[in-house]
Design goal:
The structure is a single chain. The chain is an alpha/beta fold. The protein is built from 13 helices and nine strands. The strands form two sheets. It has a five-stranded parallel sheet. A four-stranded parallel sheet has the order 2-1-3-4, with helices on both faces. The protein is globular and about 55 Å long. The protein binds phosphoric acid mono(formamide)ester and norvaline (NVA).
């Protein structure tokens, strides 16, 4: 019997929740294949998969990894990119819906980094023929979670029954990890100071698509969160758009630094993860960042392979 869940087409990737657990697992399998094929360069079987297709980039916040990897991914799949200046996301020269309705007449997909998640959703609903990819909003960072899950799978094998500990701000990165990890059977422990916890609705959403008994659990004490964890993840204390809060947040998060003492509270085999950019001696010490446990540049590399898989999944 046909599995309709696997056969439906996914138009947009605004949240990890746009994929079912089976679709997420399949996307990671595809990513691993694309990673292996990259050495073939133009002889890779997908080298012309997006020939004649265009993917636009609309970034209202800075980006090194996300923008570079989406541009490289598009080109390595034989497609072309279009830079849409950030000012057009403001909706001042013309409404954002009209920008989207113009773009869908010319191009196939748009990668959007902005502040409000509602803006990405507005583009997606205004343009039914345009594939919209969330390249980070204040709420979610779903493309990061794809690369992180591939990195974990490479290091740990099956994620079923494993635990990821996230220490710090219950932010966009933490939200997308909470959506992704439990879909693959991996529990997520999140340790945050009061007032900076993962939102309750995110925990509920994550638990709805959890598999194999995976849990999302919130902690106050980072040492409790990392006990027994297979990997320890952190992110900046002040995200893009929160720069004015940076000094106050340094005080609030002071006890949430990932350092040698915190890593010692985790199993000796625990990995260290960070989406980057990292602020050494704030959320992580240089010692842990540079330690053999650190897989941060694997995560960065895997942005490319998972985004290629995402583009193929949406556009094929
Ligand atoms: N991790 C990440 O999204 O990096 P950029 O902000 O450089 O894209
Ligand atoms: N939470 C960070 C992630 C950067 C990739 C931010 O939003 O700035």
């Amino acid at each position: 019997m046909a599995n309709t869940e696997l056969e439906r087409s996914v138009k947009d990737f605004i949240s990890v929740r746009d994929l079912s657990p089976a679709e997420l697992a399949r996307l990671l399998d595809l990513s691993a294949g694309l990673k292996a094929d990259r050495r073939l360069r133009r002889r890779a079987p997908t080298a012309d998969a997006l020939a004649g297709r265009h993917v636009a980039m609309l970034f209202e916040k800075p980006s090194l990894r996300t923008r570079s990897t989406f541009e490289i991914a598009t080109r390595e799949l034989g497609g072309d990119t279009l830079d849409v200046p950030a000012q057009f996301a403001e909706g001042i020269r013309e409404p954002l819906q009209d920008v989207a309705r113009n773009l869908e007449r010319w191009i196939d997909a748009i990668v959007v980094r902005t502040y409000a998640q509602a803006k990405v959703m507005m583009i997606a609903s205004a343009a039914p023929n345009l594939h919209v990819i969330n390249a980070l909003t204040d709420d979610e960072h779903p493309c990061q979670a794809l690369a992180d899950m591939l990195t974990l799978r490479e290091r740990l094998g099956s994620l079923r029954g494993r635990t990821l500990a996230y220490v710090g701000d219950g932010n966009n990165t933490a939200t997308s990890l909470a959506h992704a990890a439990p879909m693959l059977g991996m529990s997520l422990h999140v340790a945050s100071p009061a007032g900076y916890e993962l939102p309750a609705h995110v925990v509920e959403e994550a638990m709805r698509s959890a598999r194999d008994g995976a849990l999302v659990r919130l902690f106050r004490d980072p040492r409790e969160a990392v006990a027994g964890a297979d990997a320890v993840y952190t992110d900046v204390w002040a995200s893009m758009g929160e720069e004015k809060e940076a000094a106050a947040r340094k005080l609030v998060f002071a006890d949430y630094q990932v350092n040698r003492a915190l890593m010692a509270a985790a199993p000796g085999s625990a990995l260290f993860m960070h989406c980057l950019p990292a602020h050494r001696e704030e959320e992580v010490t240089a010692e842990v960042f540079e330690s053999p446990a650190s897989v941060v540049f694997d995560q960065a590399e895997n942005r490319l392979h998972t985004e290629k898989a995402l583009l193929l999944t949406l556009l094929s």
